[in-house]
Amino acid sequence: MKRIVITGIGAVTPIGNNFLDSWSLLKNGISGIDRITRFDASDLQWKMAGEVKKFDPELFLSKKDVLKHDLFVQYAVSASIMAAQDAGLLQKSEVENQKSKKELLDTAGVIIGSSRGGISTIERELHKLYSSRFTIHGSRLSSYLMPSTTISMAASYIAQKLGIKGNCLGISNACASGTNAIGEAYRLIKHGYANIMIAGGAEAPICRLCVEGYGVSGALSKIDRPYASRPFDKKRDGFVIAEGACVLTIEEYEHAVRRGAKIYCEIIGYGNTTDAFHITMPHIEGEVKAINTAFEAAGISSDDVDYINAHGTSTPIGDAAEASTIRDVFGQMALRIPVSAVKSMTGHMLAASGAFEVACTAMSIKESIIPPTVNITEKDRECDINVITEKKEADIKIAITNSFGFGGVNAVIVLKAVNSKQ
């Protein structure tokens, strides 16, 4: 039976422009949420976001590439290059002179999830088209509008940059997209279709269309303070939209050992279900089934789990449903198993959040550290689970990370310490 491990991580997030910086701040409870600066949100009820700060895409892309591609593609490519470098598959050098282990990446695959794709570019081009400075017939849309905004372009361009010629997929499965990308990459390796996969999620949704769109749906927080994202808190009122990317190098275990790669942890299970219930309201039965499906794939039971990285978006309905799901699956153990919600510090990076949370769970296992859930002043009684509010040391052998999205899509990944005998 093939074993699958994580050998590289790359990220661009609201709290850091690489993964290690992001993880270092996250585990110490530092938030990247603040007022929106990307556009004038003064007339909106929703003013907070998790924006990526001081990001320089030209560390990874040429100026021409930056002009061609939507920001979500730029984030995805940057995180992928960092993940390949971290895995020892790519040397750190000038972006146009990357030297890779071609024989390894040539047969690799890439799967990138995104919920909104190039929505910021679409908004910009529509504004150009319909602004008073142009007429419909006299305007000139960018010739890159269509290719640069499609969901699959992140995966396709990563393949181009890294020389990957194997499986290539773009996945759009709402907020579960990044987790699904990692889970499907795990399956491809498990069934012998590849030895190495580059997988994760990327988003750049901080534009008026997205903020107002999510806002009017009732999903966003109206709290005008950096503590607006407060999962499982009694006064939570919605999620805080955010942007970024996280990409993992996923590899067959023996293949990684033979080439001397460092290993973060092992992926041992993946569950992917749908509620078949409602486009925005979660359904506990579907979430429970996703977790149990992941357990079955991993060959474990709820008693084996030491830590849960929650979806924890800070929406009233979503957090209560997830807490009920955890109680249903774990019974009395739900009062003892530590749970944390990374989105309290990053905001909701949509597809990127699921991938980033898999990466953070891997680091929790590797470093025996559980990051805190910040901004909780009074825990909601409906969320009667063991939410960790201070950084905690813990011996974690097996952990799960949850992602649940609009449309009732659910994805759960089970991770295990590589030295665990469980």
Helix content: 25-40%
Query: How far apart, in Å, are the first and last alpha carbons?
Result: 16 Å
Q: Given the C-alpha coordinates, what overall shape results?
A: globular
> Helices and strands, in N-to-C order?
EHEEHHHEHHHEHEHEHEHEHEHHEEEE
Q: Strands of the biggest beta sheet: in what spatial order?
A: 5-4-6-7-1-8-14-13-9-10
List the helices and strands and how they pair.
Elements lengths: L3 E9 L6 H9 L6 E2 L12 E2 L13 H6 L2 H16 L15 H4 L3 E5 L5 H12 L14 H5 L3 H10 L5 E4 L5 H14 L5 E8 L4 H9 L27 E9 H6 L6 E10 L9 H15 L8 E3 L6 H15 L8 E2 L2 H4 L4 H17 L1 E2 L21 E2 L4 E8 L3 E8 L6
Parallel strand pairs: 4-5, 4-6, 9-10, 9-13
Antiparallel strand pairs: 1-7, 1-8, 2-3, 6-7, 8-14, 11-12, 13-14
